Amino acid sequence: MRPPRGRAQPVARRPPPPPRLPAEPPPEIAARILLRTDAVLVLDKPAGLPVHAGPRGGASLEDWLPQLAFGKKRVPQPAHRLDTDTAGCLVLGRTQPALAELGALFAAGRAEKTYWAVVKGAGPAEAQGRIDLPLRKTSSAARGWRIEPHPEGQPATTLWRVLGRGPGLCWLELRPRTGRTHQLRVHCATLGFPILGDPFYGTPAPGGLHLLARAIKLPLLPPVMAKAPVPAAMRPAFAACGWQAEA
Q1: Which of 13, 98, 119, 169 is the most exposed place for a label (fewest CB within 10 A)?
Q2: Which run of H or of E encompasses 131?
Q3: Catalytic amino acids?
Q4: How confident is the model at residue 172 (pLDDT cuts 50, 70, 90)?
Q5: Which residues contact 16 (CB under 8 A, 6 or more apart)?
């Protein structure tokens, strides 16, 4: 049957092609890539940059993701959390299978994470030790939300080792065995040596929070290992504890 004369027929239109992702990120972002494989990318996240966009908007790592695709159709996605104030190693999955595998590793505690921190005061008297202190989230109208130690909280374990000491400061290696929110910050503060510059559980200081996600090791095939440099803002405090810049 022929359509009635004089009536325009709808024309099928093809959807516009998806935007082409850049083959290479801009230099300021490329300089923060610590490791890249076909499935995994490890990024040196700067302190102060949230991983996800908040309800109030503002810059976040999500703004970078299309520029980290290296031509892939899928943009990489973070495989774990890293506090806004914390700098250093952040792992992203470049494919859906890789992201699922990475998520399982982090959930099972098989991702080996090493942090460096400068804490206020003399620090612990011993050379190394272990913190087992359950944590829970609490909130109030006056103070907002915080994490606090509590016997009924979630189990939280941190291994620590002293790497150096300075005047009124101590340089610690921290290896969390659980991944609770603010775990390292609360564990250190509760034991009497808050992390330098911690606005939540200590006091602000020049250079911000002196907590660095220093290294990550993932039991993949082949294994993935990456190490983040000490940010410029943290170097004076680390150097006061005996740290020397890598060649």
Answers
A1: 13
A2: strand 128-132
A3: 83
A4: very high
A5: none
